[in-house]
Amino acid sequence: METKIISIVGEKGGIGKTTLNLILASNLHYAKGKKVVLLDGDNPQYSIYKKRQRELSFLDASEIEELEPYTIERVTVGSIQDTIMKYYGLIDYIILDLPGSLNVEMVKGLLYVEHIFIPFSHDELEIDSTSNFYFTLKNNFLDNNERVLKSVNLFFNKFKLVRKNKFSLLRQQFEKAGIPIMQSVVKDRTIYKEQYRNTLYPIPENKEEGDMDIKKFFEEVEQLSNI
Q1: N or C: which end of the chain has fewer CB within 10 A?
Q2: CobQ/CobB/MinD/ParA nucleotide binding domain location, by residue (predicted)?
Q3: pTM of the predicted model, to two decimals?
């Protein structure tokens, strides 16, 4: 089996990377039938791993067996390689959730990621830091034959329709600078955190089906991961 190692990642906290990695993993597994392992590398918080444990605590053994939840493991700088190799070639996706800062845990984790997805909004300072982060990845990982990284893709996060002209201008500026921007966006919706951020269930089948809804973003993540 061809395993893809992917990560929604950013070099600062509060951009929604953990929420999106979690929802992505749940929808690939429960809605798409993919074999998924989610590695929580956000040491020492391990918020995804702890959330899974809380959710399982409300279920009995038969309910857990019926759900067939995907695996979530904690990893450290020392264990990440062995953990990846334990699953590589046996599953469809390894999704790696990394810290929200460019520290040793993130750098070590990035050595193994094949496709990176970077969220950013219209904030001027965030745009500058995201651009710098992209070129850091490009120069040190994407353009380095000794690295496994195949693509770095930016996408609009916390997208608001009332600011679509601003985002359209930003898209032109990034494309002119040679920075790849995904066609799909992630809208600014509280429901992602309050309801859909779940390790045991996918987004309901009849929800998020529109052209600018989050399922379209996940479809594009799948497409780019298979190039």
Answers
A1: C
A2: 6-195
A3: 0.93
